[in-house]
Structures are given as structure tokens and as C-alpha cells.
Amino acid sequence: MLDYVKNPYEIEKKSFEIITKELGNKVFPEDEGKVIKRIIHTTADFEYADITVIRDGTLDKAKDAIRKGINIITDTKMAMAGINKRKLSEYGVQVFNYVGDEDVARKAKEERITRSIVAMRKAVKENPYGIFVIGNAPTALFELIRQVKEGKSNPSLIVGVPVGFVGAKESKEELLKLDIPYIVTRGRKGGSTVAAAIINAILYMI
């Protein structure tokens, strides 16, 4: 019979021990390190140690926002599914995703734009101070940035980690110019699982 670790807590503990060891001499502030290690744990990709940018003070502000019950908006159902709902329920935080809404689909078809853009417009109207978690759609991030610049939204946090070849890198670089709390993975890498991992890392700190 194969001998392998079956206990989920032991698997996670050992995984983080391996991550810490393989990071070697790379040192991060304590909370930032927890976020970066959680991303690596999710992706098995150590490049995230070099491309993850967390603005100063962001993690404290993010924790405060969650404690206050500020709602979370995601750009995908996958990111929504990956966030720890049990932890969120302790603070009365809800997670919303508008991409599948009928009015969003109709408006996107009429204007010939992505559902992600229309969903973000709706999200901003309903949650102007929300925690925005974008792991897939650069168009969602571009739209949110536009809304911020126009004074229609003042997010408590933007997790900007869309993945892809068209607009992903550029949207993140635009986010880095904003004077708001953000967490970004520069370049093409990211994704819904990365976005969810970042929020979960913050939740586990509270």
C-alpha cells in the first residue's frame, strides 16, 4: 500500500514548510509574507514572490474593512467560490458577482462590450466602497480604474490579478498608479484562484 500523508492539516503544514525553505533568503514583512506564501501554495509558482506588489498599509486597511463588514465583489464565480465563506460570515461580509445577471447580459449585448465591464458598473453602483477582487478579466479592472478616477468608487481594497495576454499586464500597471489600497501581480500571471487565495490569506490573519 502506498504511504502518503492523508491529514489535510499536515499536508498544508508541510507544504508551507517546503515553501519557506525554497524561498531561501527572500524575506518579506510578516503579513506580506503570508499573502505571498498563500499564493505560492495555491499555484506552486515561486515567481509570485517577485511579481506580487502590496501597497504600504494595504493589509491593515483590508483587515479593518472586513471587520467592518464591507462586502466583496468578484469578477468570476470561480473566485467567489474559492473565498472562505465561513470566515466571512464571522464578520457579516457577503460576496457578490454580477456577471451572470440577466440585466448585465442584456446590456453587454446591446453595447457590444464585455459582461465584465457592465458587471463592474453595476458593482460600483451597489458597492462603491467595496472590496473588489479581479482575477480573470482585464476589462473589469480597466472599468473599475475608470470609475475610481471619475470619483464614482473609492474601494476599500482592489485585488488586481487578472491573467492573460490581452490587457492583463497593462491594467495592472494602471492600477499601480492609483492612490488606493491594492494588491497586484505584475505581468501576465494571476487568475481567479490567486485572487481567492489573497483574500483567504487576509482572512486567516484576522
Determine the N-to-C terminus distance.
41 Å
Major sheet summary line: 6 strands, mixed
Number of strands: 6
Oligomeric description of these chains: single chain
Shape descriptor: globular
CATH superfamily: Cobalamin biosynthesis CobH/CbiC, precorrin-8X methylmutase
Strand content: 5-15%
Mind telling me which CATH architecture this is? 3-Layer(aba) Sandwich
**Low-pLDDT regions:** none
State the CATH class: Alpha Beta
- Please tell me how large the radius of gyration is: 17 Å
Structural class: alpha/beta
What's this entry about, in short?
This protein has 206 residues and is α/β, with parallel strands linked by helices. The protein is built from eleven helices and six strands.
Structure description:
- With 206 residues, the chain is an alpha/beta fold.
- It has one domain: Rossmann fold, CATH 3.40.50.
- 54% of the residues lie in helices and 10% in strands.
- It is built from eleven helices and six strands.
- The chain has helices at residues 8-23, 30-43, 48-51, 58-67, 77-82, 85-89, 102-111, 115-126, 138-149, 168-175, 192-205; strands at residues 52-54, 72-74, 95-96, 131-134, 157-160, 182-185.
- Strand 4, helix 9 (138-149) and strand 5 form a beta-alpha-beta unit.
- Helix 8 (115-126) packs across helix 9 (138-149).
- The longest helix is centred in the first third of the chain and has 16 residues, at 8-23.
- The protein starts with 7 loop residues before the first helix and ends with a helix.
- The relative contact order is 0.17.
- The mean pLDDT is 95.
